[in-house]
Amino acid sequence: MSSTTGSGAERGFGVVPGWLERLDRPVTTYYVLVGVTSVLVGFGLIMVLSASTVSSLQATNSGSAYSIVISQTVFALIGGTALLIASRLSVATWKRLSLPLLGAGLVLQVLVFTPLGVDVKGNRNWLDFGVFSMQPSELLKVGLALSGGLILSAKRKQLGQVSHALVPYVLPVAMFAIGLVLLGHDLGTVLILSAVVGGVLFTAGVPGRWFAMAAAGFAAVAVTFVVTSPNRLGRFDVWLGRDTDPFGAARQSIQGRYALADGGWTGVGLGQSREKWQWLSEPHNDFIFAIIGEELGLPGTIMVLALFVVLALTCYRLVMRTSDFFVRVATAGIMSWIVVQAMINVAAVIGLLPVIGVPLPLVSSGGSSLVTTMLALGILLSFARAEPGCAKALAGRPSLIKRSFAVIPKRRSGR
Q1: Which stretches are transmembrane (predicted)?
Q2: Contact (Cβ atoms closer than 8 angstroms) between residue 139 and residue 108
């Protein structure tokens, strides 16, 4: 009896160390990134389909309820291709591509102020090429994260001096990029770009006292842009409760909270949203989190938040395990971008922040955001493959196709 109990205890106590040992494997970061990305993109397509049917019927002349989700699926395939290619490139290749990507983003952002640029809800941050449109500031997010890693890794030993920390990454590179977006009046994207720069500088080891001064300057600029824009000032009035007109500026925020309240604990069921019937504008885009809460209830919203937490922890694991300063800094920049953008989107939907107008990464409808975010995650997969032992472990595992053929019995020769 004692021997049986002892062996059972050994088995019981051996469960946790076994799982910890698995989590400590070099391929863990890679596979968790693949899993979380796949789930968020797949779930996003399902929710875009559910949330966009009414908008699709009204926005197209074809009478199709699936035009928006078909477009999103095409962008998901493009993004998947970009992710796959990015994940196969080496870290050295990404170092070489850092500045060209940033330069391409800056050139495209300048083109916003030419006849190719278009205004969307007061923000001039889009390019219309006729066949397709794009938001070049999304490419700037990738460029700022990678170029920050490249520039600051070259100046690693001098980052304690303010001149080396600021020049040339912050001044003029980051400030020029953010300034171009500010000229287009897209304050939401400016917040995300600032988060990328902040994450890069913090991880690089820039002294914390400089962040306080930078935050004060940024707050002054933000307040100036708010008070000089009737649209943004109206959003703050809604957020502060001074404007509660359900048919005016407060409609979006009020209907978003109605959607979450209607969903309650368990939700009204997938595809059964009532708010998407022209009560809530942008149900498939900036306010898709409200539709998730309405249709899938509290479990659906918690699942989405948990996935982003897992993504953040996985990025943090990559930052802590790598010995390459470029990888560490660039990963922190990408992590700050995706996590801060998700936080701002969710906070705006539930009323913790005013409506700023940024999509939920990988989930909301929007081609530029989806493709560039998947590209960024492909870059992280490339970094994860560079972990000691990861590439070798992945190469030693047979592919899905090889495993499939392995179970097919071989034909015997003769009869």
Answers
A1: 30-52, 64-85, 97-118, 138-154, 166-183, 189-206, 211-229, 287-313, 325-356, 362-384
A2: yes
Long-range contacts of 51-55 (CB under 8 A, 24+ apart): 51/273, 51/276, 51/283, 51/284, 51/288, 51/291, 51/365, 52/276, 52/283, 52/284, 52/365, 53/276, 54/276, 54/277, 54/278, 54/283, 55/276, 55/283, 55/284
Residue 415 belongs to some domain of the structure = no
Domain of residue 253 covers 28-385
Residue 20 lies inside a defined structural domain of this protein: no
Q: Is 398 inside any structural domain?
A: no
Q: Among the residues of 60-135, which ranges form H helices? A: 67-88, 91-111
Q: Look-up: residue for tokens 């050295």?
A: 92
Q: Count the Cβ atoms, other than its own, within 10 Å of residue 21.
A: 9
What's the number of domains the chain is made of?
1
Span 351-405, pLDDT tens digits: 999 988 899 999 999 999 999 999 999 999 999 999 888 878 888 776 544 554 4
Q: What is the rounded distance in angstroms from the CA atom of residue 361 to the CA atom of residue 89?
A: 23
- Write down the pTM of the prediction: 0.90
